[in-house]
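FAQ: What does the model actually see?

It sees only this:
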Amino acid sequence: MKAIALAVLLTGSVSLAQGAAAEPGEDVTEVKADTTKVLPPLRADARFTIDTDILLAYVSLGVNADLGIVKLGPGVLAVGAGFDFGFCGTVCLVLGGLLNGSYGERRFFPQARATYHIEIPAKGGALQKVDVYGLVFGGLVISSMGFTGTYQGVTVSATSTGVGPGIGLGGGGSFFFTERAFVGAEASLKYAAGRYTDVLTVTPPNSNVDFRWRDEYTGWSISGFSIRVFIGFRI
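And it is asked to produce this:
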């Protein structure tokens, strides 16, 4: 009998608790809405990027990574670093052929990055697989170009090197086609410019003596608007 009485008391208690929970005016815990796949704090996105055109006139390859730091307002602030390597493609091959020599241009751009990943409500669908962010970056650009050719036994080589600031801002978006892997694109407006130090070297035939001239001459610039595509992985 004691067991039956205890069961009745427990059943009554549960019924009273359910009735109290159903009373109007009581606070109800709201379920958080689903959102886009924002980079969370203490997680990182690593990317391999490429920027070129259909003619491969100039090619820029890069790697970068962003680490989520803190939830800030409607998104997450992240910091990171990147490295871009750009080189002249088909245009330099054509110029080298026309000048009967070898011509090339290269640029190295180590940089620091800060991104803000915006959290957008998304109740299902493809939007839940997207991460959208704003971007600022800056660093030093090392630019160089060179030419070498031989004319009637005389070897002529010219090299130009320069270092200048590179800063920019933009935005990007990633689409996760698996839980961690993604593809996407970044659009940015960049300022990067400086002046070359030129060295011209002439070597006569059958001679161990070089004639060399050095001067600060032309300026260089890779400023402008660019769009690069990437593939990446969330760590």
